[in-house]
Design a protein that fits this description.
There is one protein chain. The chain is mostly beta strands. The chain has a domain at 13-73. The chain has one helix spanning 13-16; strands at residues 2-3, 21-27, 36-39, 44-47, 53-57, 68-72, 77-79, 91-94, 101-102, 114-116, 121-124. The strands form two sheets. The protein has a six-stranded antiparallel β-sheet with strand order 1-9-8-10-11-7, with no helix packed on it. A five-stranded mixed β-sheet has the order 5-3-4-2-6, with no helix packed on it. This is DUF2190 family protein. It comes from Deinococcus lacus.
Length: 131
């Protein structure tokens, strides 16, 4: 099952202080809060789709392309499920549709980018090329 991350909650500010961060990049397309984000060869951030290196999740919404956006990576806890359907301790993967998350390995992510830390939250555990 693939799903788009929930939008009722944001990033955990405590883990954000210690998570890896990508700064100084701009978006190549609109990106919603909590969506998985990748960095492509043009130096811009996009919804993760396997075309670039997965960098983490978006702590806020970028409504248009060319907006500056800091991305939080390894160690970041973020809201992913509005309906509390995650299984704590389970590995989750980048989905095949841009900016989605899957509960099974995909062509974009065979390793698992996230682990559920509650029924609503995921933590980023891997970045880079995951396929």
């Amino acid at each position: 099952m693939e799903f788009k991350p929930g939008t009722l909650g944001g990033h955990d500010t405590t883990t954000a202080h210690f998570a890896t961060q990508v700064t100084g990049a701009v978006t190549g397309e609109p990106i919603d809060v909590n969506q998985p984000v990748e960095l492509r060869a043009d130096g811009r951030l996009y919804k993760a789709s396997g075309q670039g290196a997965f960098m983490g999740s978006s702590p806020r919404t970028a409504k248009t392309a060319s907006q500056a956006l800091t991305v939080h990576g390894i160690g970041q806890r973020f809201h992913a499920s509005d309906d509390a359907s995650l299984t704590p301790g389970k590995t989750y993967y980048l989905g095949t549709a841009p900016g989605t998350i899957s509960d099974a390995p995909t062509a974009n992510d065979a390793q698992g980018a996230f682990v559920a830390v509650s029924t609503r939250d995921l933590m980023v555990v891997r970045i880079g090329k995951l396929a």
